[in-house]
Amino acid sequence: MKRPVRNSVIGLAAVVLISATVAWFHHSRSDDAALYQTAPVARGDLAVTISATGTVEPEEVVDVGAQVAGQILSFGRDVDGRPVDYGSKVAKGTVLARIDPSLYTAEEANVQAQVQAAQAGLQRAQADLAQYQAKLNQTQRDWQRAQKIGPSEALARVSYDAYRSAYETAKANLAVGQAAIEQARAGLAQSQALLSRAKRNLDYCTIVSPVDGVIIDRRVNIGQTVVASLNAPSLFLIAKDLTRMQVWVAVNEADIGRIHPGQPVTFTVDAFPGQTFNGTVGKVRLNAAMTQNVVTYTVEIKTDNRDGRLLPYLTANVQFELQNDKDVLKVPNAALSWTPLPDQIAPQYRKTALAQAQPAADADQGPISETKDARDTTQARQHRLWTPDGAYVRPLAVRAGSSDGVMTAVAGNGVTAGMPVVTGRTTAGGDQGDARNPFTPQFRRRSRSSH
Q: Are the beta carbons of 335 and 39 closer than 8 angstroms?
């Protein structure tokens, strides 16, 4: 009697175990199928932009150099009375620095002496000319008297010829005197030019600001020797007006066709996180640059800097605004690219969804927007979204419009703000079940065996 009772207990236990296993299996499958990653359909503005990186630059910069060589003796003072340094405000004509003028002072004195000598030479040439003129007058009268008498017993032939020769010699001497005066004048003019040059070089020893502005770079120190040879060494960099700044952006050749003057731009700088600055495209420079076979064009962006927050040479992260759609429905791009497995589609939609190779838009769906952005098309694209339906998903035919690279504008019957759309599926363990890459190597765990 004990054996049949024992067998019945074992059989009952086996039935209970099998039932529990089947129930757990179905429960885990339903939970696993219901673990979809979703995101709500949002309503708001969608901006289509081109991203690029640039540098904040002053609108106009003047590079002040030295035209003479020498040692820096001292710096001038700015409008606040402090020595000229980084960030100093200077007015036009303000002394920035002084170079040792010793050599140029000596040169000026030397050339000044040459000018005085040339002036004395001119005066001597003028006196010689007067003497030659007097001699010519005397010989001319003697020659005229000799011509009246002529060669005769009263005037020997030799004397006659001597008067004639003296007259011609006096004429030649007068011409020489006149040429000497011209030469002396030319020498004086040359000496005066050298004197003007010497004075100019002496003036160059005092470096002054050519404009009103702010010093953004000081490239010399007191005691440093500057050498001006073929190129003038740069001493100071002055920004004329820091209230107007520019952003120089390198734009790829694939995007440059969509950039035009007057286009709105927003940008951020790392110095002020969370703050967005506005600007407009000023011009597109035509001199392209090639780096590692990548062609880029420099675009100048104008921006207002009256508050003085933007500093020269900050790195700017720029967004060129190509299109701005207002008050549209938008979904993450992952929702448009996700595709369920056949057994994940609700049974009543499965046959139709599998039969359709391309999602069809409803006839009464209006266009979202038309744009010429490379990431958009001039006509809305046909897509399908999936929304949870119990343990399954059901399709929603939509038309996709512009995209900012993260979100895409959509429109379609039954699509409303706040509606959840599937962007992926996870297993009960939290792994993305349908996002697994089949080409990713799979590693098997080796069981440890005890010896």
A: yes
**pLDDT at site 157:** 81
Averaged pLDDT for residues 126-142:
89
Q: Which of these, 324, 320, 325, 316, lies nearest to 263 by C-alpha position?
A: 320
Domain 61-100+208-239 sits in CATH at 2.40.50.100
In eight-state DSSP terms, residue 311 is P
Residues 6+ apart with CB under 8 A from 283: 261, 299, 300
pLDDT band at 21 (very low <50, low <70, confident <90, very high): low
**Which pLDDT score, from 0 to 100, does residue 324 have?**
83
Residue 451: CA atoms inside 13 Å, Cβ hemisphere, count?
0
Which residues does 273 contact at the CB level (< 8 Å), separation at least 6?
Answer: none
Range in 34-43, 73-82, 156-165, 360-369 the model is least confident about: 360-369
| Residue 238 buriedness (CB in 10 A; 0-12 / 13-18 / 19+) | buried
* 103-204 belongs to CATH 1.10.287: yes
DSSP string for 315-379:
EEEEEEEEEEEEEEEEEEHHHHH----GGGB-HHHHHHHHH-SS----TTPPP------TTS-SS
Given this model, what pLDDT does residue 231 score? 73
62 contact partners, CB below 8 Å, separation of at least 6: 210, 211, 213, 237, 238, 239, 240
Quick one: pLDDT at residue 197? 94
CA distance 441 to 414: 41
- Would the pTM of this model clear 0.90, i.e. be above it? no
Read off the amino acid at residue 102.
Answer: S
CA 432 – CA 442 distance, rounded (Å): 15
Q: CATH assignment of 49-57+241-324?
A: 2.40.30.170
Among 123-132, 267-276, 307-316, 419-428, which is the least confidently predicted range?
Answer: 419-428
Please state, in angstroms and rounded to a whole number, the distance separating the CA atoms of residues 357 and 200: 85
Highest mean pLDDT among 135-149, 302-316, 379-393 belongs to: 302-316
For residue 78, give every residue at least 6 positions away whose Cβ sits within 8 Å of its Cβ, in sequence order, or none: 84, 85, 88, 89, 90, 94, 215
Residue 132, pLDDT score: 87
- Nearest alpha carbon to residue 243 among 271, 214, 208, 281: 214
At residue 126, the 3 state secondary structure works out as: helix
- Parse the chain into domains and list their residue ranges: 34-46+326-435, 49-57+241-324, 61-100+208-239, 103-204
- Separation between Cα atoms, residue 202 and residue 194, nearest integer Å: 12
In DSSP terms, 323 is beta-bridged to 48
Compute the distance between CA of residue 39 and CA of residue 42 in angstroms, rounded to an integer: 9
